[in-house]
Amino acid sequence: MRVLALAVAIIYFIIIIVLSIWYSRKNVKNAEDFTKAGQGMGWLMVTFSFVLVPLGSGHTLSLWQQAAAGINGGIGASAVWWAVGAGCIFLPIMMLWLGPWVRESRLGTMPEILEKMFGRGLGSVHAAFQTMTWTGIGISETIATGTAIYGLTGGAIPLRPTCVVIALVLMLVYVLFGGVLQMAWLNVINSIVLIGGSYLALGMIGVWLAANMGGWEGIMEIYTQAGMASKLANFELGNPDVWFNVIIPVVVLHTCAGAVSQCMNTTFFAAKDNQACRKGVFLGAGINVMSCVPWVIMALVGMVVPALVANPALDVSTVVPLLAIESLPAPIVGVLMISLLAACLSTGGSVLMGNGMVIANDVIKRPWKPNMGDKAFMKLLRVCIVIQAIILVIGALNFDVVFPIFIWCFSFGIPVFVVYLCGQVWKISRPAAWITIVVTYIVNIYWTFWTPAFSLGTPLELNMYPVTICSVVLGIVLTAVLPGTPGLRTKKYAALHPDEAIVRS
Q1: What one-character DSSP code corresponds to residue 58?
Q2: Which domain holds residue 496?
């Protein structure tokens, strides 16, 4: 059984990788093509990039970890709000304003945009912190990809180190040859597989439940007997914990971190026009939310299946692969794990590409080698991607739970987003930006590692509240009182820079 499932996955990935490399070799001629697809991505590739790039382990492995913990008092079915908040609020914001702003800049990276607004020093700080924090996201994607491979092998190959190392090799292949263009076409194919595979598996698990456990009613009975019916039966909108620990954090963190990250904005840098940005993200947002639901349901089911409960390998990370192995035919196990791989490889590849681009362009080329030729830059970029992959695999071998990593990493984007937004629509104040970011970073680190007495013992995800309050208060007040220049999207700025390439909407 496990051999057949693994064979399905191997054949699939060999086919799509060979096709994507062939296409990319044919169409990728220079660094512009590799990093921005020649700014030629239409709405179809933008759509499916935004199905998979924000999805990744955050909307698969992390989501089912949170759902699976419901049987032990966690948030259960309410985990779906992580996907709904991101898909229905964060992505439309990106669609309407932030994505087109990035494309219209005609620049290559987010640190370049921040450098244009606030000077090289702050751009360099953002480059350094973005690389470090999104390395955490890459680690979580590596863990999730390794988990999918673990499921494909039926648990025969250990998750660490073997499956994790294989995961990084696949991520490298995903991005290393054709860059953004290769990832875009792989995203189109993998999105179709993700949606079809996960819903097919969910339907067949439903049939298996009906035959072996009395269907959904049997699952509900188990949760009821455990006193956890609310974790399964509703989304607990009346529960303050759901609002303050899930819904509000996910909207704030996704919006702020995504808006200023190279990884999330890579697609916008490559988009053909603003219409492609908006149309692609609008469609991708809805599909993204729909793609998350099966993983939550499968996790809720798997944690109470008697055959799995008796398995010592069962935990919140392995519940979906083990449920698939227990209830599905081998080819469908292969398809489901391919679905997980599709999501995680896309986000992981985006992290490798985004961080590699920031290191190569903003840390090395522009400060030290501004006259570097196109071929030399391409070699440097690929070396940076490989080094980033090595760092990810080291981290993935030493971390376990995905969700706290996301929370910690995303929170560093909040103060940057506040000063970036102020600098776009109001005023560019370099002193205000520096003070806001430095003070908020200190607050974030202190709150997380040396939790002050006023935290009342709150969990890690609530670090976003002091970080958000500090960012907003400092950002607005200091921008108002300290000297600065007109924001990039103000009429005053346009009057002072009539020939600038930025197209204002």
Answers
A1: G
A2: 413-505
- pLDDT tens column, 317-363: 788 888 998 999 888 888 888 887 777 777 788 888 888 888 998 88
CA 490 to chain centre: 31
Q: 191: helix, coil or strand? A: helix
Residues 6+ apart with CB under 8 A from 495: none
pTM, full prediction? 0.79
Domain match, 343 and 468 both = no
What domain count does the chain have? 2
Contacts of 160 (CB under 8 A, 6+ apart): 146, 396, 397
Query: What DSSP assignment string belongs to 427-439?
Result: EE-HHHHHHHHHH
Q: Is the pLDDT of residue 460 over 60?
A: no
Three-state DSSP at 2 gives helix
CA-CA distance, 247 to 262, in Å (whole number)?
Answer: 24
Token digits for 32?
A: 């512009």
Domain boundary among 399, 426, 442: 399
Nearest to 150 by CA among 166, 139, 170, 137: 166
State the CB neighbour count (10 A cutoff) for residue 202.
16
Residue 176, token pair as written in the block:
């290393």
Distances (CA, A) of 210 to 152, 207, 364: 25, 5, 59
The partner residues of 428 in beta bridges, in order of sequence, read 485
- For residue 112, give the CATH number of its domain: 1.20.1730.10
Nearest CA-CA partner of 255 in 126, 57, 93, 113: 93
Q: What does each C-alpha distance from 419 to 137, 429, 439, 440, 467 come to in angstroms?
A: 23, 8, 13, 12, 13
Structure tokens at 141: 């994607």
